[in-house]
Design brief:
By secondary structure, the chain is mostly helical. The protein has ten helices and no strands. It is a multi-pass membrane protein.
């Protein structure tokens, strides 16, 4: 699959069938992960980093562009299912969205200082941290017997720094906010479904600002964003259904294992 997108850097879009299928599957899996368990938005970034010749800025810019639509769809889904209608949940979402106005541009600017190898190492570190946080989150949920549905107020002194860290990391790597936000929110005491809901709302702000930032540098490949983003949208709806109707323990375990297996490869990928 090396050299699958030979013309992407020069502005053209040439992709062989096998790579197109792989990238579309990364998008589908990412969408499912976004709304079912939170840490799914990293998968399109990983797919493009591993299977295209794009620069770190183009990987991040193209990935974050796909999250504008997935964030909007995920937000609408959780409004429909009621999580974002609760006042305390909406307040948390507003705090996270506000902090994203500051954190996201910082992350985009930091991307300029990251070379290809360093980008892979930092991405591997972020993937590992996410996997560990997701595992800790699951242990906590089982220990306290959380049903994952009830609203819980999150203090501003917790939500503000959390939102800044999440949005800066998302801007740097082109991630969806739920990747880090959901595990961190649950660890801070928010039930799973409200955490998923507020993370979707934050991701709309992160993705919109991040896309503008990377567009200014010419680092968004729209054909590639469409190739990944369309199946990612389908995955968002599938993941939303899984989160509400199906015990997702096996999916979470598989996602944790996949992230931990991919992390070393990302670190040493050139």
């Amino acid at each position: 699959m090396s050299g699958a997108i030979d013309g992407a850097i020069n502005g053209a879009f040439q992709v062989d069938t096998s790579t197109a299928v792989v990238l579309a599957l990364f998008g589908l899996a990412g969408g499912i992960g976004i709304t079912a368990v939170g840490p799914g938005g990293v998968l399109p970034t990983i797919g493009m980093f591993l299977f295209t010749g794009l620069s770190p800025a183009s990987v991040a810019g193209t990935a974050i562009a796909t999250h504008v639509a997935t964030g909007a769809l995920g937000t609408a889904a959780y409004v429909r299912s009621g999580q974002l209608r609760d006042p305390s949940t909406r307040r948390t979402a507003l705090l996270l969205c506000t902090t994203a106005l500051v954190g996201t541009p910082v992350g985009v600017l930091l991307n300029d200082a990251v070379a290809g190898r360093a980008f892979g190492v930092l991405l591997a570190a972020a993937v590992t941290v996410t996997a560990v946080l997701t595992w800790i989150r699951e242990r906590r949920v089982r220990r306290v017997g959380d049903d994952g549905t009830g609203p819980v107020p999150l203090p501003a002194k917790v939500a503000v720094p959390l939102g800044l860290v999440v949005s800066a990391a998302a801007g740097l790597f082109g991630l969806g906010g739920p990747m880090l936000a959901v595990p961190l929110l649950v660890l801070c005491g928010l039930p799973v479904l409200p955490a998923l809901a507020v993370a979707q709302a934050q991701s709309v702000v992160i993705a919109s600002l991040g896309t503008v930032g990377y567009l200014l540098g010419g680092d968004v490949n729209w054909p590639l964003a469409a190739l990944i983003g369309v199946p990612e949208l389908a995955g968002v709806l599938i993941g939303w259904k899984i989160a509400r109707l199906v015990p997702a323990q096996r999916l979470k375990t598989a996602l944790i294992g996949m992230l931990l297996l991919l992390a070393p490869y990302l670190a040493f990928h050139s």
